[in-house]
Amino acid sequence: MKTGGALGIAGLAGCISSPSDDGSGDGNDDGTDNTSTDGTDGGSGDGEDTTNVGMVYATGGLGDNSFNDMANMGIKQAKKEFGVQFQNAEPDSPTDVESLQRQFAQSSNPDYDLICCIGYVQTNSLIKNAGQYPDQNFMLVDSVAETDNGDLVKNVANYVFKEQQGSFLVGHLAGQLTQMDFSAGKSSTKSGKKTVGFVGGKEVPLIKKFEAGYKAGVAHASEDIEVKTAYAGTYSDPVKGKEAALSMYENGADIVYHAAGGTGTGVFKAANQKGRFAIGVDSDQSKAKGTAKFSNVILASMVKKVDEAVYRSTKNVIDGEFKGGKVNTLGLEQGGIEAVYGADLGSEIPDDVKSKVKESREAIISGDIEVPTTVEK
Known about the structure:
- By secondary structure, the chain is of the alpha/beta class.
- Helix content is 32%, strand content 19%.
- It contains nine helices and 15 strands.
- The strands form three sheets. Strands 1-3-2-4-5-6-14 form a seven-stranded mixed beta sheet, sandwiched between helices.
- The protein starts with 14 loop residues before the first strand and ends in an 11-residue tail after the last helix.
């Protein structure tokens, strides 16, 4: 029995939802599925050997067609392969995170074998809760749980990604295409302009890694290309994403890359409206349920395999190989990051452009190209 008492999952702060009969746990397309349930049957296993996992998502929730949905794919895969049962919890705000983590840890019906904490905003709450529940296994995505003296928290497996590497590749792609008269679908580059854009969610060190890698990739194509940058301040407001991208397109940008979660849907809408191009993030957004309708403007996506982190940590629990107090770093070489071409537009991109992107990928893996993680001022 885990220390810290026992409490059911009913009445959690934020939004907690039971997976559907097939364990999908999907939100709707716009990420606004905030209907709470009592959660008492939220995928709990009937047998002693059933592995139960609590999923605490990043703010913005399921249905973002990006970061959270990738995490959801990972636990769904674990359910499919191993019969894992899981329950989803979607915080309405960062202040809900601590309560959601804690009540999963306190639960005895079911007793959760692993609690997956998706997103850097959960770090401080997790450090506190992991200390109070030392027998509970946790995993954390996009950050590292450390004590005040710098030691790794012993019951937390940390997963971080080299987002800058994949961002470099899509930046190199954008940098090449903006110098060309390129058309695909109903979109085209603006002849005579060498301008691209980047829209971030919140201006925090993690998202600055995306920006830094992207700008380095663009510069690798040519130092003469202008990169316009804007931060929406949120991961769940497509209107702000559209406004930021429209401004960029109207001021000469051919291609805009976003690292803004659900806010990025607005970037695709702006690209579609202006007849320009966009680059997705986290999942292959030319195929994702809520963004595939914009595949006619999505050149590529920088895929961050949060699903792999969730799947791997769950499998480790099942196999008795869970190791807390460890940092797992996933980049191009480890298969945790990749740049994928759009389902509709990928075939239209010139082969020589793709070849140069491939060369960059190989150079990053070999160490010949070292991608920055911070933006030069």
